Automatic annotation (TrEMBL):
CDD domains: ligand_gated_channel (cd01347). Pfam families: Plug (PF07715), TonB_dep_Rec_b-barrel (PF00593). It is a multi-pass membrane protein. Keywords: Cell outer membrane, Membrane, Receptor, Signal, TonB box, Transmembrane, Transmembrane beta strand, Transport. Transmembrane segments: none annotated. This is TonB-dependent receptor. PROSITE patterns: TONB_DEPENDENT_REC_3. It is found in: Cell outer membrane. It comes from Methylomonas albis.
């Protein structure tokens, strides 16, 4: 569903609309918050935007956020094992893909330790998600550094839209068991609140030999949200979560020192909590403001590295209307991070404890050139970081809407990814390379060494898009892009000292280019039947590099999906999803192309009660979606993605 964007998790309308009850024309004209952090219609957004609605999530049967992200065009989502995913947009995929900024209600979950997202820590009650907003392409002006290839914002419902009680429970062969409970009520005359708790246990995967792995996943999480008014002109939100995760992991050989000189199984633990407060409203002159702050603490204990991280973030934005042709917005943000690691022979940070900051200011102006027809958006962000120095990230967007049926947009942007702390300060053992000599000279140990003088990676992106509503029942959205990357952070060979070879993080001298096309469509064949589909093609032009040979092969060239939804008599709903992913052809990621099929059958015998049976990964060959190649000396471990069948009960009362 190609909708648009909410700024920091607050909805524009007072209550969530029933998406299923709208025609395509009404959906395209809905008032939603856009990539420019303000209310716009779907057809009026000058960006490659896609929204996964709560109804999409429910009918897909997704039990995790990465599973739900598979519905968006331009996103690469591949499961590595029971709890680990590789997720990115427009190329450069890996377990720690570092060019995709992910937010939950405006709270960044992008980890600065290694870059990327720990997807096994990101969770909430899936029924509380209002929508997941996906921007493909740079979003740096509004969202800051690391929004290089895209932005994902997971937005939960307002408290007043979750009143009463909800109980969900189920289980199956992979989803061994899960349960969740939510209660919502009133606070005073205008306020609302909700509290929730959830837990689940997911079974481990198997390898190509049929052996059960040590990668099972268990979680307990709880949270709350309060929405209320301070006055007629302002309102506030306070929300928070607390969680504990237990994740099985198999540590592969990385060093010659025990215990990392052999493979062993271990249970890793993560505890975390976050608290967010947001105040928004209007000034007396009619301008609008938003002030948000959050505190986020993550503490994880793993065999190779343990870390305690505290993050404090403050963000302010102000929207003005100097005249009828200008819609001006500016803002500033400040983030402080303190991280303390427990070093091992596998990974060691110097220093092991560090406090650092990131600050930015932005300004953007929407300029009306021709009323209701042509609009120009100009903006830039100035960002200063502890790593990567100061970055200027401008963009320009042009939107042409000759009528209510067609819209054409184009943009040029510059965005940056600041180096991760691990690239600037960590020594990481990558494993051993066989020498062919007898022991003890049988392996050369390879060590990744930090580089404190790294420059930020940069991308110059050009995009063009076309949206049209062919009939009242058929619409399409097409985007083409060309990205040119400079100062890519890659390995260069260091010194060979004895049996230790160093690889040093460095900025590449050559530019990389990616280009592609993304297509999304929706067709309401009948009142009770709907097809939605998307296709993405990606071409990467990467200079050959023997130390970094796998970059282009980490992402498939072709991806596509087709969803078929039917509302049958007797309150029965049937959903099918056919998904195809092209092959990965790099040395460590030799994964064949695959086609898989998901199905969901749901029955609602009474209002508020639904029984569903979900089958995932049917009719596909048993093979990995992605391989874990964290150790340099080993090819990617081939973990099969199993077929999953489970049942689910949802009860609203």
């Amino acid at each position: 569903m190609a909708l648009n964007f909410n700024v920091m998790g607050s909805a524009v309308a007072d209550s969530a609309p029933d998406i299923e009850g709208f025609s395509i024309n009404e959906l395209m004209q809905m008032e939603v918050s856009s990539v420019s952090r303000k209310s716009q219609t779907v057809s009026d957004t000058a960006a490659a935007a896609f929204v996964i609605s709560q109804e999409d999530i429910r009918r897909s049967g997704a039990t995790s956020i990465p599973d739900a992200l598979r519905m968006a065009p331009g996103l690469e989502v591949a499961q590595i094992n029971s709890s680990v995913w590789a997720v990115t947009a427009r190329g450069f995929n890996s377990r720690y893909a570092n060019k995709l900024l992910v937010l939950m209600d405006g709270r960044s979950v992008y980890t600065p330790l290694f870059s990327g997202v720990f997807w096994d820590l990101q969770d909430t009650l899936m029924e509380d998600i209002e929508r997941i907003e996906v921007i493909r392409g740079p979003g740096a002006v509004m969202w800051g550094a690391n929004a290089v290839n895209g932005v994902i914002n997971i937005i939960t419902k307002k408290a007043k839209d979750t009143q009463g009680n909800l109980f969900v429970a189920g289980g199956g062969n992979q989803e061994r068991g899960f349960a969740g409970y939510r209660h919502g009520g009133r606070v005073g005359d205008d306020g609302s609140y909700r509290v929730y708790a959830k837990t689940f246990e997911r079974d481990s995967f198997v390898n190509a030999a049929g052996e059960r792995l040590h990668d099972d996943w268990r979680s307990v999480q709880a949270g709350f949200r309060i929405d209320d008014r301070i006055s007629n002109d302002s309102r506030y939100t306070v929300q928070g979560d607390v969680y504990r995760k237990t994740i099985g992991n198999t540590v592969v050989p990385q060093t010659v020192l025990p215990p990392f000189n052999r493979e062993f199984n271990v249970d890793e633990h993560a505890d975390g909590a976050n608290l967010l407060a947001r105040w928004e409203g209007n000034f007396s002159d009619g301008s609008e403001f938003m002030l948000q702050g959050y505190y986020d603490r993550v503490n994880f204990s793993a065999a190779a590295l343990s870390d305690s991280q505290d993050m404090l973030d403050i963000d302010f934005q102000h929207r003005l209307h100097p005249n009828a042709d200008h819609d001006l917005m500016w803002g500033a943000s400040y983030r402080f991070i303190h991280s303390t690691t427990e070093n091992t022979s596998a990974i060691a940070f110097t220093p092991n404890s560090l406090g650092y900051h990131n600050g930015s200011v932005f300004v953007q102006d929407d300029i009306t050139l021709i009323d209701d027809t042509l609009r120009l958006t100009l903006g830039t962000k100035l960002e200063e970081s502890h790593f990567g120095n100061t970055q200027i990230q401008p963009n320009a967007r042009l939107m042409w809407t000759p009528n209510h049926v067609h819209s054409v947009w184009a943009s040029v942007s510059r965005a940056s990814r600041t180096p991760a702390r691990g690239e600037a300060q960590a020594n990481v053992a990558l494993g051993g390379v066989p020498t062919g000599l007898p022991a003890p000279f049988d392996q050369v140990q390879v060590i990744a060494q930090p580089n404190p003088n790294l420059r930020a990676e940069k991308v110059f992106a050009a995009e063009i898009g076309y949206r049209t509503q062919w009939t009242e029942k058929l619409s399409t959205d097409i985007t083409a892009f060309n990205n040119q990357y400079s100062d890519r952070v890659l390995f260069r060979r260091g010194e060979l000292v004895g049996l230790t070879q160093s690889l040093i993080w460095s900025n590449a001298q050559q530019d990389f280019t990616t280009r592609g096309i993304e297509i999304a469509g929706e067709w309401h064949v009948l009142d009770w039947m709907r097809f939605t589909g998307n296709y993405s093609h990606l071409k990467m032009e990467i200079p050959q590099d023997p130390l970094n040979p796998d970059i282009a092969g980490l992402s498939p060239r072709h991806r596509g999906s087709l969803r078929w939804q039917m509302d049958l008599p007797e309150k029965i709903k049937l959903d099918f999803t056919l998904r195809h992913v092209g092959r990965l052809y790099s040395t460590s990621q030799a994964v064949p192309a695959y086609t898989t099929f998901d199905a969901r059958l749901a029955y609602e015998p009474y209002n508020g009660v639904e029984f569903a049976v979900i089958a995932q990964n049917l009719f596909s060959p048993r093979h990995p979606e992605y391989k874990d190649s964290s150790a340099l000396s080993l090819p990617g471990t081939a973990v099969e993605v199993p077929r999953s069948i489970y049942g689910k009960l949802s009860w609203r009362f």
